[in-house]
């Protein structure tokens, strides 16, 4: 965190903590599948021009991702790409997962998203408030 990135028209540090779970919280993400999923998430990010800094599977039924992206890439696009492509590819690589799920969906349709910065919300508020004072 805190690493500034330089693009043609901006300097940025845009990071997200994203969490989503398997459908019905089924515990289908075994160690082997989790390792494959982590590699897959990195490949998807590279292909779609954002960065997955860290990814981990929790309790065999949910995924945590720490991602960074150019401001032109929306967080919903990041989630859509990660969940959509990984779901399809995991079903192809591990068809036995489908036996524990219904309707061919690996991931729950919802997700959690939080922006992550290098400084706190309070520090930003204080900085902006102090812009009006001359000293």
Per DSSP E runs of 2 or more residues, the count of β-strands stands at 6
Class derived from helix and strand content = alpha+beta
CATH homologous superfamily label? Transposase IS200-like
Report the CATH architecture. 2-Layer Sandwich
| CATH level 1 class label | Alpha Beta
Structure in words:
The structure is a single chain. The chain has 135 residues and is an alpha+beta fold. It has one domain (5-132): Transposase IS200-like (Alpha-Beta Plaits), CATH 3.30.70. The chain is built from 3 helices and 6 strands, in the order βββαββαβα. The protein has helices spanning 31-47, 75-93, 121-129, and strands at 5-6, 11-12, 15-21, 51-58, 62-68, 112-116. The strands form 2 sheets. The protein has a 4-stranded antiparallel β-sheet, covered by helices on one side. A two-stranded antiparallel sheet has the order 1-2. A hairpin with a 3-residue loop joins strand 4 (51-58) and strand 5. It is elongated, with a radius of gyration of 18 Å. It starts with a strand and ends in a 6-residue tail after the last helix.
Characteristic key phrases:
4-stranded antiparallel beta sheet; 135 residues; Alpha-Beta Plaits; alpha+beta; 33% helix; two-stranded antiparallel sheet
Brief digest:
By secondary structure, this protein is of the alpha+beta class. It contains three helices and six strands.
């Amino acid at each position: 965190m805190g690493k500034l990135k330089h693009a043609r028209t901006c300097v940025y540090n845009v990071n997200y903590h994203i969490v989503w779970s398997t459908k019905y919280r089924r515990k289908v993400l075994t160690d082997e599948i989790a390792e494959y999923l982590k590699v897959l998430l990195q490949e998807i990010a590279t292909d779609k021009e954002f960065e997955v800094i860290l990814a981990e599977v929790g309790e065999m039924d949910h995924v945590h991702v720490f991602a960074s992206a150019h401001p032109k890439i929306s967080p919903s696009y990041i989630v859509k790409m990660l969940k959509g492509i990984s779901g399809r590819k995991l079903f192809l690589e591990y068809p036995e997962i489908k036996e524990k799920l219904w309707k061919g969906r690996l991931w729950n349709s919802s997700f959690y998203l939080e922006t992550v910065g290098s400084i706190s919300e309070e520090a930003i508020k204080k900085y902006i408030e102090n812009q009006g004072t001359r000293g």
